[in-house]
Structures are given as C-alpha cells and as structure tokens.
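Reviewers of the previous submission asked for a worked example of the structure-prediction workflow described in the proposal, so we include one complete record here. The input consisted solely of the amino acid sequence. No template or homolog information was supplied to the procedure at any stage.
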Amino acid sequence: MKPTHPLYTTPTTPALVTIALALLLLVAGCRFFSKRSSNGDVPVARVQNTYLYRSQLQGLVNPGTPPQDSAATVNNYINNWVRRQAMLLNAGNEITATMPNLEQQLQDYRESLLLHAFEQQLLQQNPDTLIDPAETETYYQQNKDNFVLGTNVVKVAYVITGNKAEKQDSVKLLLKKNTPDALQTLLQLCNRQTFTCALPARWYAWTELQQQIPLDDSDFTTFLQNHFFQTHDAVYTYYISIDTAAKQGSTAPIGYCKPEVEKIIAHKHSLRYLENTRKQIYEDAINNGLIEIYQHNP
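From that input alone, the workflow returned the following structure tokens.
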C-alpha cells in the first residue's frame, strides 16, 4: 500500500488545500504516506528531503475553534512552512557556494547562543548578590571623577497645601524640624488633611522638581544656601525642606549616584562569579579525564 504522491504539496488553489487538510484529519494509515518518522509519525508536506510531520501541527488550533477557522490556521501554517523551506533550500545552495565557512560560522553562533543562555542561568543562581555599603563607599571614593553631574540636583521633602488650608503652621514647623519623628507626624497630618506630600526626602533633578513645584531657575541658588524654601501660586502653597543641593558639573553626591555605583558593583560581582564558575568547570573536566590535548606540530 504505497502512495503515488505525498498527501500535500505546494497548493495551487484554496480548494486543493482544503481537500488536503480534510484527508489529513480524517484519514490515517500508511496508504496515504510514503514517508514516516522513526516513531511512525506521518508527514503532511515535503520540500526535497525535509518533511513537516502531523505531530508538528499539534497545538496550532485552540479547542472550540470553528472547523473552517481551524482549517484556515493549519493551511496557513503548512503553506508558510513549505515557502520557508523552499527559501532555505535555495539559500543553502547559494550561500554555501559563496561562503565556504558558513557551517563553521553557524556552529560558532550556535555555541555562543548556548553559552550565553547557560551563563544567564548561572547568574540567576548567583549567591553573590548582596552589596556591602562599605564596598559602595570605597568604590565611590576611588572613582569620584567618574561621577560628574550632568544637571543640577536636589534632595528634598515637600508638602503642598491649599493657600487657605488649616494646619499650615504645623506643616512648616514639622518640615523645618526634619527629624524622623517629625516627618512621621507630618505624614499623618498630610493624610488627615489630604495634603500632597513627598516624604521623606529623595533626590530630584532640578527640572524634575520644577514639574512638581513652580520654581524659577534662579531659585536653585537659594536651595544651595538654605535648608528651607517656601513659595506659592494662585491656589497652592509649597513648603520644601532642603537636605542637599549640587550643581551641574560638580561631583555627584554618593546618595545621588548610589544606584549607579551599586549597579557597577553588581556587574563586577557577576563577572567574578562567571569567571570562578568557568574555572571550576574546567578543573572538574580535567580531574574527571574529560580533557586531553594531543601532541602536535604547530
């Protein structure tokens, strides 16, 4: 019971594709296929010596999909597959002739992908992820010249109230105090009065803070010289506690560049971990007799 032709070849009309799909889904048996995989899987398409098997179509169609849509999905997949394989067939013939080292390049690329995926998996298992604050401080002090501010920055806490809101004196007093207890009390006050606040202090680029509070560029000089600033517009009053301010072109304060420093240190930890792992893998291979270098003449 041998067929005279495969069940599916490149379709010439939609009707032929539909008939082929119907035969695929309704008929099973060796009388419809001339090639089976080693496990008995039946092919549904062929391009020269490359076959697309029925098992590879599993999962293409979601349960409950109407038959017409299912047929269209499978037909589209098969048609795209044969077109791609035809292109690959011609590409292989043409490129191999003009690029004699193609196979080696492909092998090198495959190995690079495999090693990269393996190293990423190793990094996920890396136990060396904690960064000691002392290490951060040391790295910063040794590399200060690399951390130069590209813009004015400030570390501030602020509260925004309505111009006629109650408790403004308390807001001003607590913000000027700027102790942990005072800020906690202030936060509770802001929640009760529904004041907008940013507590405790954090770092802002000057232009970022200007988006939150109506500040002129000239106000930055005041921030450099004071620890408290107050301003208002037609609707709101703005109270600002100034922790630190630093000018563009100066060395970035460690608090501002700490995330960047920690990122650099974490990267160094990762490189060290990978290097130690590579060394361990190599030593294990040597000890287990997996590596042998033969005598040769250069």
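Residues 149-246 form a domain with the Chitinase A; domain 3 fold (CATH 3.10.50). We consider this example representative of the routine output the project will generate in years two and three.
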